[in-house]
Amino acid sequence: MGIISRGFGGRRRESSPDLPPGQYLTHDFPVLSAGPTPRIPLDRWQFSIITETGEKHTWNWDEFTALPADEFTVDIHCVTKWSKLGTTWKGVSLDTLMADVESAADYAMAHSFGGYTTNVPVEDLLDGKAWVAYEFDGEPLHPEHGGPARLLIPHLYFWKSAKWVNGLRMMPEDEPGFWEAAGYHMYGDPWSEQRYHGD
Amino acid sequence: MVDTRWETKTARTLVLDVPEWPGHLPGQHVDIRLTAEDGYSAQRSYSIASAWPSDGGGTVELTVQRLEDGEVSPYLTDVVEKGDQLELRGPVGGWFVWREKQPAPVLLVAGGSGVVPLMAMIRARGLARGRQPFRLIYSVRTPEDACYADELRRRVRDDPGLDVHFVYTRKAPDGWPAPPKRIDVAVLNTHGWPPDFQPDCFVCGPTSFVETAADILVALGHDAKKIRTERFGGA
């Protein structure tokens, strides 16, 4: 299916088996955000996990950066079609942050400074699949890219990796976050091309 | 594609007759997928330039800026012809949109081809005879790089609720009162709305432009929640 575009295909971009369908490779690092970039002073930064019973676990910047951190290299895939392969980050695994959190919830809503939200199944946050990252390429994460710290869930489209993240709220039922309420997919698997509602 | 026209030397408007188009809000975009004969395909997003329903009936217009190292845009600007078919998906996006029932004044800030979705808002306001006052601040390299220049001039002449201010970054027209410069605090303060008016602000363009303009609006006292941005990233 699909319409053949006469004469198209002469200037192809490099391809890679690591590229999900419909994506193209980029070597720079585009920025996508819905509003102005917030600047969050580290002494006002905190990250909280609130369970479905209202129990709250909070870390300030010093407590958070004292946690054991991973350095890891992953591919990232933006729903606007670019992918960037082999990006290197440092951050705290959600397994570490969730270790003492008692919750039976299947979903979480990530919240950010500035009001952004995005929903994620809890099983996509655990078992080494997600981090709260605070360094990119060996440098503190720049505010444009979500610093001081952003969620990083590389196996889902990048809008799930909430910039300027400041907490998770555990939810028994799935609810749409910011882009999900604006027509984007509730889950967002790039390998199944789950870009928009109905994909 | 039923019609086409050049807006500048490098930006071309494609007029599309889309079967079963459900209509769209100004600011939304479409995804275009091109497929080669061997099955290779590439897709990109393009902002819709027209309001719905369009003046001439049920068409949808995109304005595509040719990126010299691009893969899809040069095909759309230089190869596709009237009568060709395109595979299109949309409309997409429910955030960077203007709705005619929003009563606030509107500030549109465009960098280069970022004007496209903002033009759709100006056209939608015209179509709805909206009474919300609109201001557009439009940054271009040179006068020749301005899209929709004649239409904007005509709309400003006929519509006291619309103001357009150009910022020229490389070359200003003869007799222009200021030397070429980038968008700055003075421009946004003078030609935007005071923050007390609580305008809805839409900023669209390349990342560095959007970062600069949005930061200035926040510094001038605009509520960050009233500033919606769309960044043209990547290639």
Keywords:
heterodimer; A: 199 residues; mainly beta; five-stranded mixed β-sheet; 3 helices; 11 strands; 7% helix; B: alpha/beta; Elongation Factor Tu (Ef-tu), domain 3; Rossmann fold; 2 domains; five-stranded parallel β-sheet; three-stranded antiparallel β-sheet; 5 helices; 30% strand
CATH architecture grouping of chain A: Alpha-Beta Complex
Helical proportion of chain B? Answer: 10-25%
- Categorize the overall geometry of chain B: globular
Biggest sheet, spatial arrangement of strands of chain B: 9-8-7-10-11
CATH level 4 superfamily of chain A: Oxidoreductase, molybdopterin-binding domain
- Helicity level of chain A, as a percent range? under 10%
**String of helices and strands of chain A:** EEEHEEHEEEEEEH
**What would CATH call the class of chain A?**
Alpha Beta
What's the mean pLDDT score of chain A? Answer: 95
What's the helix and strand layout?
The complex is a heterodimer of chains A (199) and B (235).
Chain A: E1 24-25, E2 46-50, E3 56-60, H1 61-65, E4 70-77, E5 82-93, H2 94-98, E6 107-112, E7 117-121, E8 131-136, E9 139-140, E10 150-152, E11 165-171, H3 178-181
Chain B: E1 3-6, E2 11-17, E3 29-35, E4 41-47, E5 59-65, H1 73-78, E6 87-92, E7 106-111, H2 115-127, E8 134-140, H3 149-158, E9 162-168, H4 185-191, E10 200-206, H5 207-219, E11 227-232
Parallel strand pairs in B: 7-8, 7-10, 8-9, 10-11
Antiparallel strand pairs in B: 1-2, 2-5, 3-4, 3-6
Summarize the structure.
The complex is a heterodimer of chains A (199) and B (235). With 199 residues, chain A is mainly beta. Helices cover 7% and strands 31% of the residues of chain A.
How would you describe the overall organization of this protein?
The complex is a heterodimer of chains A (199) and B (235). Chain A has a single domain, classed as Oxidoreductase, molybdopterin-binding domain (Sulfite Oxidase, Chain A, domain 2, Alpha-Beta Complex), CATH 3.90.420. Chain A has 3 helices and 11 strands; from the N terminus they run E-E-E-H-E-E-H-E-E-E-E-E-E-H. Chain A has helices spanning 61-65, 94-98, 178-181, and strands at residues 24-25, 46-50, 56-60, 70-77, 82-93, 107-112, 117-121, 131-136, 139-140, 150-152, 165-171. In chain A, the strands form 2 sheets. In chain A, strands 1, 4, 5, 8, 9 and 10 form a 6-stranded mixed β-sheet that branches. Chain A has a 5-stranded mixed β-sheet with strand order 3-2-11-6-7. The longest helix of chain A is centred in the N-terminal third of the chain and has 5 residues, at 61-65. Chain A is globular. With 235 residues, chain B is of the alpha/beta class. Chain B folds into 2 domains: 3-92, Elongation Factor Tu (Ef-tu), domain 3 (Beta Barrel), CATH 2.40.30; 106-232, 3-Layer(aba) Sandwich (Rossmann fold). Chain B starts with a strand and ends with a strand. The model of chain B has no long low-confidence stretch (mean pLDDT 94). Chains A and B meet through helix 3 of A and strand 3, strand 4, helix 5 and strand 11 of B.
